[in-house]
Every structure is written in C-alpha cells, then in structure tokens.
Design a protein that fits this description.
The chain has one helix and four strands, in the order E-H-E-E-E. By secondary structure, the chain is mainly β. It has one domain. The protein is globular, with a radius of gyration of 12 Å. The protein starts with a strand and ends with a strand.
Length: 82
C-alpha cells in the first residue's frame, strides 16, 4: 500500500540523493516543502507534491517523468509563491 512521506526543511534541494534518503517505495507520494526549494531532478517511481515560498528550477532539471512498473502514471503537484 502506497504511503505519504512528508519532508520539511527551510531550504531543500530535490535531487536523487535527497529522494533516496527518504527510503520511499515505488508508488509512494513524497510531500516536499520548504521556504526555498531547488528542483534538480525527480524520480518516476514516486508521486510528488512540492510546496515552496520560492522555487528554483535548475537548468536542465530532470522533470520529465515516464511511468515505471511500480508507478505507471507519476503525478507532480507544485505550489509556489515565487
């Protein structure tokens, strides 16, 4: 059964290392929030909810996701003020 994993920080970089550190299973929803969030890459195994006061998308950020066996249709929700 899929879980919702919440991770809050003042500043946060969303990258493969941060995602791996959460020890999520395919199909889980990762809720990532911070005052300043830098988006570097996402992983297709998970669904994402990203909330930030300020969102920075790195050049060439990996944001295109294609479904995989554990998560055939990944979803991304982004909520940002700036």
């Amino acid at each position: 059964m899929a879980q919702t994993i919440r991770f809050f920080r003042d500043t946060l970089s969303v990258d493969p290392a941060a995602i791996s550190a959460l020890q999520a299973s395919p199909g889980d929803t990762l809720v990532l929030t911070g005052r300043q969030v830098t988006l570097i890459a996402l992983a297709p195994e998970y669904d994402f909810v990203i909330a930030a006061d300020r969102l920075i998308v790195a050049p060439h950020a990996g944001t295109t996701l294609t479904g995989v066996a554990g998560n055939p249709s990944p979803s991304i929700t982004v909520l940002a003020l700036d």
